[in-house]
Amino acid sequence: MKPKILLATTCRWYSAARLAIAFTQIGCSVEMVAPRGHPATKTKALQRRYGFRGLEPAASFLSAIHEAQPDLVVPCDDLSTICLHRLCRELLRKGEERSAKILQRTLGPPDSFPTIDSRTSLMAAARSEGVRTPETGVVTKESLPAWLAQNGLPAVLKADGSAGGRGVQVVRTIAMAEHAVADLSAPPMAARAIKRALFDQDRTLLKPCIQQQSPVVNAQVLLPGRDATISVACWEGKVVASITFEVIKAMSLGGPSSVIRLIEHPEMSWSAEKLVKRLGLSGFYGFDFILEEQYNRPTLIEMNARATQTCHLAMGTHHDLPAALAAKVTGQPVPPTKAINDRDVIALFPQEWQSDPGSEYLATAYHDVPWGEPGLVKACIDSYVSQRKWYSSRKLVESYRKLFNSSSPRDSIQPVGRP
């Protein structure tokens, strides 16, 4: 049996392209619902792309599900997760069991969706399972002063439905906090446009997939320590594969990691397993922690209910997430796999190269460049160059040279776009 995977995304993150490659390499057929120009279309891995319409997200996903009839539907960003959750509930309400079953196979039980979609509810569920969490609560302009008086500053304010560092602000004064609440709770331009497009229309498969007009804002105590993450593949409430790492560098505060160190941390694994079991989860998830400097104890600060940017990394048996999930689809035991490298420090591509083309980690760490997909590498480089017009020719040539000398094999691609 050749599993068919349908990746669902509302944006153009490179991580979805890497996941498409990983699934293809283990023998899966991969299709995708994505906006035009997605980096995955530059790879040999993608069998087909279904169009994504921003004003009709649910209709886009549902049309692709009906046509592809996939074994799994994998959300690759937070908005796609929210849309798929609401679409699944709407399909169940309408009695469309077949399509809803496909979604539940990867997303888990609909009863868990409200907890997954709410940062504060998730933290409460984690605490009830004995997982260490910081004080977290929903705040508004009116309730903010009382929350700050009780929990103090500094704090982190996070909007539900945000990702990649967007919708997250660290505040150190009351004035900063007040400004952040006003900013984060304002409806985004896209939401206003969608609302206008749906005015006085009875389109039930569209309305459930649109975020609230005013996003929910959560306040969380800011903890000192080191960032760490565990990415898991799970099936019906059980973790079947995981990768645990400490963040060495991030592209921005609260943003995506660019350099990571693989570690083992039993308490992080235990915490993830407790929540996966509690919520009956299936699919890919990422759990973010803060590690105490002195005792190395982890505190859970967030869960990403989607495929994260490290899910494609094959780090050996029980640490190869796509292979483990595909095995569950086919009913076969998880196959033994080899790690892609023997170094524990990994520079993620294109994150670290885009963040710092002169980074020492491009040479000293394992640089995770998809050399077998020259079209994707070229697309990453061209996108970076087009956004950095001020970048000098000499520095660009030097960064190219470092990039193409940092990993092997590199016979399949030559530096492109050189001035």
Outline:
The chain is α/β, with parallel strands linked by helices and 419 residues long.
Notes on the protein architecture:
This protein is of the alpha/beta class and 419 residues long. The protein has four domains: 4-107, Rossmann fold (3-Layer(aba) Sandwich), CATH 3.40.50; 135-221, Dna Ligase, domain 1 (2-Layer Sandwich), CATH 3.30.1490.20; 226-330, D-amino Acid Aminotransferase, Chain A, domain 1 (2-Layer Sandwich); 345-404, no CATH class. It contains 15 helices and 15 strands. The chain has helices spanning 14-25, 57-68, 78-94, 97-107, 113-117, 119-128, 144-151, 174-184, 189-197, 266-279, 321-330, 351-355, 361-364, 374-387, 393-404, and strands at residues 4-8, 29-34, 46-51, 72-75, 136-139, 155-159, 168-171, 217-221, 226-235, 238-250, 257-262, 283-291, 298-304, 345-348, 366-368. The strands form three sheets. It has a seven-stranded mixed beta sheet. The N and C termini lie far apart (47 Å).
